[in-house]
Amino acid sequence: MSKVAGFHRDRHWLLCFVVNGEGRFGLSHDEALVGTVALLVAGLSIFFAVGPWSMPYELRTIAGVEAKFGKQAARGVWLFIAILSGVSSIAILTDVRPSYATPTAKAYQLK
């Protein structure tokens, strides 16, 4: 395997991250589900922010922002939600964790 970080597909057709060609962090099914849902929320939020319709702006929080600060600020809120969801989904799907955290499967193997 190459010493350069990259991507490959495992037998479950999930995209797994390869670190320096030596270690591989497997993606569990619940992480794949949560990451995919976060990615869908990011896509929908972008769709709502650039779309011409007013239905997404009838949500109570977004309507409050629109009433107080205007339509551009409400679009900004949708874009902010999209950015947060997108960054979260990328972090989940690439298995980014703090150095002190261990995946549940590895924690049970260590016991």
Radius of gyration equals: 19 Å
> What is the helix tally?
4
Order of helices and strands: EEEHHHH
Q: How does the helix and strand content classify structurally?
A: mainly alpha
Q: Tell me what portion of residues adopts beta-strand conformation.
A: 5-15%
Task: Tell me the total number of β-strands.
Answer: 3
How far apart lie the N and C ends? Answer: 30 Å
Helix content: 55-70%
Which sequence of strands runs across the widest sheet?
1-2-3
How would you characterize this protein structure?
This protein has 111 residues and is mainly alpha-helical. The protein contains four helices and three strands. Strands 1-2-3 form a three-stranded antiparallel sheet, with no helix packed on it. A hairpin with a 5-residue loop joins strand 1 and strand 2. Helix 1 (29-50) runs antiparallel to helix 3 (71-93) and helix 2 (60-69) crosses helix 3. 13% of the residues are buried. Mean pLDDT is 77; it is low at 1-24.
